[in-house]
Design brief:
Elements: H1 10-24, H2 29-38, E1 40-50, E2 53-58, E3 61-67, E4 70-71, H3 85-95, E5 101-105, E6 117-123, H4 129-135, E7 140-141, H5 151-163, H6 177-193, H7 201-226, H8 237-316, E8 342-344, E9 350-351, E10 357-360
Parallel strand pairs: 3-6
Antiparallel strand pairs: 1-2, 1-5, 2-3, 4-7, 5-6, 8-10, 9-10
């Protein structure tokens, strides 16, 4: 609930000054009273319709009153619900509960095309409700047709709300214009702050997508602001120019940032691919080294097993029998008349006619 700011409406002060001036120049006060009765009525509030419309009891009849020179966010239709529309209605309900006595102050045109009575609504203490709505940041100053009697007061109240960053001018309320612009700027700053050495190509690609989304949102808000619709209608003159310029700059900055992320992502992806290739080469080399070590180890194991087997066989084999020298039959003592083939040499078994030893062999 927004707190009502106690204030003396500019309209009330203006009427007081005019009354004093008229009295000073000698115009009868009765004439002023006569003129005022034609442009004001007293009524009793029946209910609040929305942030800038009420039903009142006037001359015994229920009449719908549209407050002049102030436009509050829509709240009556869910499909058309605008930022702070519900809050504006709730504020007015708190300000004008049923049974509240008010003054209806008129301008040149008394009714709109919907048959609603057009008026400034003044509390009995002199505060102008139209301006109080704007002062709390729950409505903006407008002029429709030739009715501008309260425009100055509402505009001044709106400027106070903007200075105080109240309601529609707050950066702390998510749906407001300043909050949307500030949020986009903060998001982009956050994205830029996440970039650090060693960040992955995937993360950079995600940042590029996020920056592109911010650029798109800023461009969309710029288009919305340029059409003077919804909550962006609070921007006018220098404020509108600054907001539009800020959105253009933000969109361009986000686009440039996105392009930078895309480039960085591509470079990071190339580095990652090269690192993957080198890692795969190292893995294969390590596998080959381990395989060679395993092969050599297996060969050594097999050789050791063979050596041990040979040793075991040597230990279990019977001792070798020393060779036996052939028995040599000494030759006979004389020639026996043999005339066949002979093999002469030591150890012969026969003696030839000359006394030489030989061995008889087949011819």
């Amino acid at each position: 609930m927004y707190t009502i700011r106690e204030r003396r409406s500019p309209l009330h002060r203006d009427l007081l000054i005019i009354t004093v001036l008229i009295a000073l120049i000698g115009i009868p006060v009765a004439l002023l009273a006569s003129a005022g009765s034609a442009s004001a009525d007293e009524a009793t509030v029946v209910r609040v319709v929305d942030g800038d419309t009420i039903d009142v009891k006037l001359h015994g009849d229920k009449v719908r009153v549209r407050l002049l020179n102030v436009d509050a966010p829509e709240s009556t239709s869910p499909s058309k619900l605008e930022c702070l529309g519900i809050e504006a209605s709730q504020y007015l309900e708190g300000l004008l509960p049923a049974g509240t006595a008010v003054k209806l102050l008129y301008d040149e045109e008394r009714e709109d095309r919907y048959g609603r009575l057009l008026a400034g609504v003044e509390l009995m203490d002199g505060n102008l409700v139209n301006a109080m709505i704007a002062e709390n940041g729950l409505g903006t100053a407008i002029v429709v047709g030739s009715n501008d009697r309260f425009y100055r007061a509402v505009t001044q109240a709106q400027e106070e709300a903007q200075t105080d960053q109240a309601g529609l001018f707050s950066e702390d309320i998510e749906c407001t214009v300043p909050a949307q612009l500030s949020a986009l700027e903060d998001d982009l700053e956050t994205i830029e702050g996440t970039v650090s050495e060693g960040v992955t190509s995937a993360s950079l690609a995600e940042s590029a997508i996020a920056a592109t989304a911010i650029a798109t949102s800023a461009a969309a808000l710029h288009a919305l602001a340029a059409t003077d619709t919804d909550a962006w209608s609070i921007l006018s003159g220098k404020n509108r120019t600054r907001a539009l310029d800020a959105l253009v700059a933000l969109s361009a900055h986000a686009t440039t940032t996105s392009a930078g992320f895309v480039t960085a992502s591509a470079l990071a992806a190339a580095e990652e691919q090269e690192a993957t290739r080198l890692a795969e080469e190292a893995r294969l080399a390590e596998e080959a080294r381990l395989a060679e070590e395993a092969r050599q180890a297996e060969e050594a194991r097999q050789a050791e097993e063979a050596r041990q087997a040979n040793e075991e066989r040597s230990r279990s084999a019977p001792p070798a029998t020393p060779p036996v020298a052939p028995k040599v039959t000494p030759p006979s003592s004389g020639y026996d008349g043999y005339t066949g083939c002979r093999a002469y040499g030591k150890g012969g078994t026969s003696i030839d006619e000359k006394g030489r030893p030989y061995t008889k062999i087949p011819c």
